[in-house]
Amino acid sequence: MRRFLRIVLPAIVILAWLAFAGVGGQAFGKIANVSTNDQVSFLPASADATKVQQEQSKFSKPAGAPAVIVVARSSGLTASDTHWVSSIRDAVSAQSGVQGVSPAIPSKDGQAVELIASLTPSADTSTVVAAMRTDLAKQTPSGLTAAVTGPAGFTADLTDAFAGIDGILLGVALLAVLVILVIVYRSPLLPFLVLGTAMFALTGAILVVYELAKAGVVTVNGQVQGILSILVIGAATDYALLYTARYREALRDARTGWEATKIALRGSFEPILASGGTVIAGVLCLLLSDLNSNKALGPVAAVGIVFSLLAALTLLPALLLAFRRAAFWPLRPTFGSKHPAVTGPEARGLWAAVGRLVSRHFRIVWVVCTIALLAGASGLFGLRANGVQQSDLVIGHSQARDGQAVLAKHFPGGSGSPALILGNANKLDALVAAAKQTKGIDSVVGVSKDSPTGTVPVGASASGSSGSGSAGGAGSAGGSGSASGSGSAGGSGSAAGAGGSGGASGAGGSGMSGSPTVVNGQVLLQATLSKPADSPAAEQTVRDLRTAVARADPGAKVGGVTAIAIDTNDTGIRDRSVIIPVVLAVILVILMLLLRSIVAPLVLIGSVILSFGAALGVGALVFDGVFHFPGADPSVPLYGFVFLVALGVDYNIFLMTRVREETLLHGPREGVIRGLGLTGGVITSAGVVLAATFAALAVIPILFLVQIAFIVAFGVLLDTIVVRSLLVPAVIYDLNRRAWWPSRISRGHPAHEG
């Protein structure tokens, strides 16, 4: 009966995973269907901009994001250019997904003209913008510049940049891991067993996340998809490497694969479970964020780690039990063979040499490592993580960015992306006056459902003069703004269609009489900015605008693209100060419970903080001095911290659980050297694998992901090579028994006196 179970039980486990993967594999192609680009889903939950975004659809006809078509000729537009623009307007108006297009709006210098097209609420922004750009590219007159920009244009560029998130990213990550595993194991079979375990874990995670997103329990976007794939592959491979190392050791001491499996599970279950629990606790701390984009990642990443744990502790043991020693061919461990020496004069190899270095010069080692890490952390003084312009989110070519530059040269820079003022209808005149007196505001109009253009003049221009009203918007002013930047980490570059198409320019307002729509005693105004909506100057204007309208109406709120960027950045900065201490406290408690000590966990936490500071500092120097990036999203340090601390502690857990095990047998200092020697190879391999998987994020040309890829990949290597290999062993060796206070090891058990 027992022999029967030894055969049937692994088979049942493998078949169960195969069946689960068969169902889950279908979710790979479906998860995009439950991804959302609704900007409201990713805005700060309590911010004024979010509240305005949620209310604005009540004041106008439902509409999607506005696309701004700008056409320019440096020598001045000709009559034939004007005729061509008219034909383009007709072609765009006839496109599916376009709700309306404004009349041509000429610039004051006569060198440019703009059209503002509003999309239907259900339109696929990327598809519609692509069709517009195709029309523009057809028979463009020589010397004429034409581009589609505005909120819809930026959203389309972001969507295109994320196009490889499912295929290219996953392929690059898997190829990198496969190459590393082949080098590490020098076996034709074992790398595929390990990589297959990771892929089965990812399949299970994708299936559960798909069902949760379909039910509305979690929110998924392109960024979350990418990080989920990388995190699961990296974590599952790490856990698989640790189990495989234990299993290979056990095959030397156990006659059968079943006995080796039991030994390996006993030795690896606690550290793998503790490591996974640490990461889960770390990512779930993102739920404390007030930024919905951060909240979205927490539970999704936790699901991914749960499946990484399940696959590493069930599927991989079953696969290795099925193949036994053949899995390691041609370097098969044989029963009764001698374990490689890790200490003493007969010890050979890199990790034996590292152990001798630590034991002989432990104080010099940890002091030098600390100084080196502090030197790297000094780069933090140059870190610019207060947000970047929307136009800088995409690395490489961006037609929306080029078009925005042309737009800002010939029109008020905020054309098509006005600030939105939601206030008391009884204080309309005071609100208009406050807005117009704010430096950087070009024009102000009211939003009206009854107006053909979607807006009406307000204030002085409402008397019927040809004042500064909307230049013929497409009837979508104050549209729904659903065209979010589809992967921004809740950062400054969300391409929200917050403002609709009205208020594009003060040139040639219609002077139409009418009143703004009043809903529940409130009105909505559009204030066109003189500077590009994503520029620092525009942000300062909106901050000043908020102060001005608050004096006129204390209950007034300011929203729109620029306000969204401000609130998102401010919330991201707030989240860092709240979440980082909580993550540290949670991980510290887990380490204390795992190691039955207070001192050693404090050392480990201190080491990963130092490592994170060095990784972020070096990253700041590289971003500024090598890549010349314009800055970073406020969420970059937070994401980097959560992943580096949680994953960096993983390697310290792998090390210190083995050190504690060896300490109980051989004493504190001998235990450090033996634990270092026994885990050196597997942890270094795991670190290289994880660094390679996160580095794969750099293939997606999104600034946020490229920065996260560098920080986490470099930080993991720093943790693996410096912190876990030298700093932590040297400090623990120096502390001797004190490292394990208050456990019984610290009290000097007789067996440990040597």
The tally of strands reads 10
> Major beta sheet, specifics?
5 strands, antiparallel
Calculate the mean pLDDT score and round it. 82
Q: Which regions are unreliable across 5 or more consecutive residues at pLDDT < 50?
A: 463-512, 750-754
Backbone structural class: alpha+beta
Provide the helix percentage.
55-70%
Strand content: 5-15%
Q: What's the Cα radius of gyration?
A: 30 Å
Estimate the global geometry from the Cα principal axes.
elongated
C-alpha end-to-end distance: 47 Å
Number of helices: 21
Task: Return the domain count.
Answer: 3
Written account of the structure:
With 754 residues, the protein is of the alpha+beta class. It has three domains: 194 residues, Multidrug efflux transporter AcrB transmembrane domain (Multidrug efflux transporter AcrB transmembrane fold, Up-down Bundle), CATH 1.20.1640; 284 residues, no CATH class; 200 residues, Multidrug efflux transporter AcrB transmembrane fold (Up-down Bundle). The strands form two sheets. Strands 1, 2, 3, 4 and 5 form a five-stranded antiparallel sheet that branches. The protein has a five-stranded antiparallel sheet with strand order 8-7-9-6-10. Helix 9 packs antiparallel against helix 10, helix 17 runs parallel beside helix 19 and helix 20 runs antiparallel to helix 21. The longest helix is centred in the C-terminal third of the chain and has 35 residues. The radius of gyration is 30 Å and the shape is elongated. The two termini are 47 Å apart. The C terminus is likely disordered.
